[in-house]
Amino acid sequence: MTAPRRIVHPGPEAAQRSCVAPAGTVPVDFTVPAGEIVNAGIADGLAAAGCDGAWVDLSGGRFAPFRYVMPAGSPGPSHAAWYSETFAPEGIVTVEAAGAIVGWRDGEPFLHCHGIWTDPVGARAMGHMLPLDTRTAEPLHVRGTGLVGASFVARHDDETNFTLFAAETMLRDGEPEFGSGDGPRALAVTLRPNQDVGTAIAGICAEHGITEARLFGIGSLNGACFADGPAMDSYASELLIRDGRIEVGALRPRLDVSVVAMDGTIFEGRLVHGDNPVCVTFELVILPVAA
Length: 291
Fold this sequence. Notes:
Layout lengths: L17 E15 L5 H11 L4 E5 L4 E2 L4 E2 L1 E3 L7 E3 L9 E13 L2 E11 L5 E6 L10 E9 L1 E8 L4 E8 L1 E2 L2 E2 L9 E6 L5 H11 L5 E9 L16 E9 L7 E7 L5 E5 L7 E11 L3
Antiparallel strand pairs: 1-10, 1-15, 2-7, 2-10, 3-7, 4-9, 5-6, 7-8, 8-9, 11-12, 13-14, 15-20, 16-17, 16-20, 17-18, 18-19
């Protein structure tokens, strides 16, 4: 049996390998006008819905200007992985599939988005959208799950030397703000490096008594192995969960994903269980299916 893939980050390994914060939920469904900066337009819609954070789906959106980066090797020892140069396609970019975790950075709303898109000549690419540098070219229909009482807060992470989202309970006057929302309770989750993403999700769901759920999220893997198709060997990547589920009676989550390697190759399919370690981070909303 081969040893699990591991990536060595520059800082000390944190003892806590995941962060989990229960939240109330609010279904979100709103439109961002054309010409808006993506980060600001989505933040306004979520604020109007009374959300502390969210998972939102941006599939079908059209954007110009559009800016994104892809995973890359680190230029030095300060990080284990890094980002490419910024790509700036000319004209309107159409999103095939994209999702974003929305939380807080430096006291302001901030959006972390991975997806697949095509430029005006039909070239298909995948990566990490830069939401402060991208604008809607047409009205953008946003749907998703808003979180109340928990969110994702960007903080410096000593282990990876990145500023990363961590799932946290929101505080009001120093006390936990346990929101109710209009929907089922959910879990905001972040995972640290070098743990198999499926195993970690299964453990968290078992600990919280969740037997059926939808899984929404993005992250990075150190290589990826699929049930049907070639493996991805890239040690840094950007991933989007296209369809994630915990099904009744199943011991393992089902994770159908798209993931881009450092050379720009896009891999798609269902991840095998036990052989897909987190590279830098993984951010999730686990939404139990109402009985």
